[in-house]
Amino acid sequence: MSAQRERRQVVRFAFYKLDNAWRRLSAERQASSKLEFGETIERFAGHLLLRPYGLVGIRGDCDFLLWQVAEDLDSLVALQTALNRTDLGGYLTLPYSYLAMTLRASRPGW
Q: What is the pLDDT of residues 66-86, one digit of tens each?
């Protein structure tokens, strides 16, 4: 029997808080900021598992959660760097960020 190396995944739960200053921007600027942020997430969705969850009305200290699963830590760093470079990223803080390493899920498509 050959020893197979178990594949691990890096999992991150990133909780974001939007600065109130962003809400005072023009509707056009808000729309373009959201579009740019969404396009950035879509660029990474091909090689990361990404799931957003809205937390408005659920938590007072966070507005949304971005659940991230990757094969390596560098992918998560690249995603966060790209998000920080967006217009919306300049208005976000990261009150909580939880990182873990797990065995690869056996579900298809993960």
A: 999 999 999 999 999 999 999
Q: Report the predicted TM-score, pTM, of the whole model to 2 decimal places.
A: 0.84
> 1 burial class (0-12, 13-18, 19+ CB within 10 angstroms)?
exposed
Domain boundaries, the chain: 8-103
Is the pLDDT score of 6 beyond 90? no
- The CATH superfamily holding the domain 8-103 is Apc35880; domain 1 (3.30.70.1030)
- The continuous run of DSSP H or E covering 96 comes out as strand 92-103
Contact criterion met (CB below 8 Å) for 87 and 28: no
Taking phi first (over 0 means left), then psi (-120 to 50 degrees means alpha), and beta for anything else, what does residue 21 get? alpha
CA angle 16, 78, 50 (to 5 degrees): 55
Q: Residue type for 74, please?
A: D
